[in-house]
Amino acid sequence: MESPSAGGRRRRHGRRARPSRRRPLLCAALVCVTVVGGTAAGTAYVRARGSAGPGAVGSAASASPSASASGRASVETVTDQAADRTALLAGAMKSVAPEDGATVSVAVLDLGSGQSAVYGDGTFDTASIVKVDILAALLLQAQDAGRRLTAQERTYATAMIEDSDNDSASALWRIVGGADGLDAANRRFGLADTSGGDGALWGLTRTTAADQLALLKQVFGDDSDSELSTASRTYLQGLMGRIAEDQRWGVSAAADGSAWALKNGWLPRSTTGLWVVNSIGRVTADGDDYLVAALSQGNATKEKGISLVEGAARAAVSVFAGGT
């Protein structure tokens, strides 16, 4: 189910602008290519994050020539690997042709290697994938308050994630503080380009595939990656692994059998009659685990949107699976 009020206007006047807070993924390869009606144009860029110990603060002039050369070589190796993934993903997505007017973006992270790639830089309505973000925000707020979720909150959470129940989502949206509460949590989660929907319109939260990948790292990462506790992550992962049977589509198309945990979103826009169809989650393929976020908009039907995000998910995982 999707937000029944999601076709309304979403502009929230007077909201403060948030500075960009990008937290790059380890060895991330990000390719910005927007695909509309089967055409592609764009630019590739690479970001890598190193680690620094307590002794790393000091003058750059103190580094030895050999250390500097070694560092440059390491960065070049990471950059080369990232660029390879970027090129492979761009090539794989050539087989995924959106219909005229439709747009797709996909992001993938290989949990084993830490490498990732993103195809498409558009911003999309979330529809019901925001329900993962709502629950993550609630869990973070509960952690901060030193409390567990109440029985009622857990009932809402189960219905919201497993059955995509809208009334439960609306109840938890109010509990977390609506867009302000969601945005506050997302600043801590590292989602730089996600903004909560107006008023009660949680389904019109705006996001990117790269931000959804960052959110998935909060849910499926470890203590070094996530603001969420082990208990919170385990709880949310469990709900995403028990999705209602009629909603078991999307990124799961890239998985081996039932080796997945996901949340889907689908929404016909009242202004255009076109469909937003999104899917995010973890999949296992050839024994390896991947996080995948596939977003689309401008689809003539829900079925065409599902086909598009499933094709994008398969293409994204193929970049890493099978030793490519």
TrEMBL record:
Q: What is this protein called?
A: Beta-lactamase class A catalytic domain-containing protein
Q: Where is this region: Disordered?
A: 1-20, 56-77
Compositional bias annotation for Low complexity: 57-75
- Specify residue ranges for compositional bias: Basic residues: 8-20
Tell me where on the tree of life, at the top rank, the source sits.
Bacteria
Q: Which Pfam families match?
A: Beta-lactamase2
Q: Which GO terms describe its molecular function?
A: beta-lactamase activity
The record lists the organism as: Streptomyces spiralis
UniProt-listed InterPro entries: Beta-lactam/transpept-like (IPR012338), Beta-lactam_cat (IPR045155), Beta-lactam_class-A (IPR000871)
Q: Name one GO biological process term.
A: response to antibiotic
Domain Beta-lactamase class A catalytic positions: 155-295
Organism lineage reads as:
Bacteria, Bacillati, Actinomycetota, Actinomycetes, Kitasatosporales
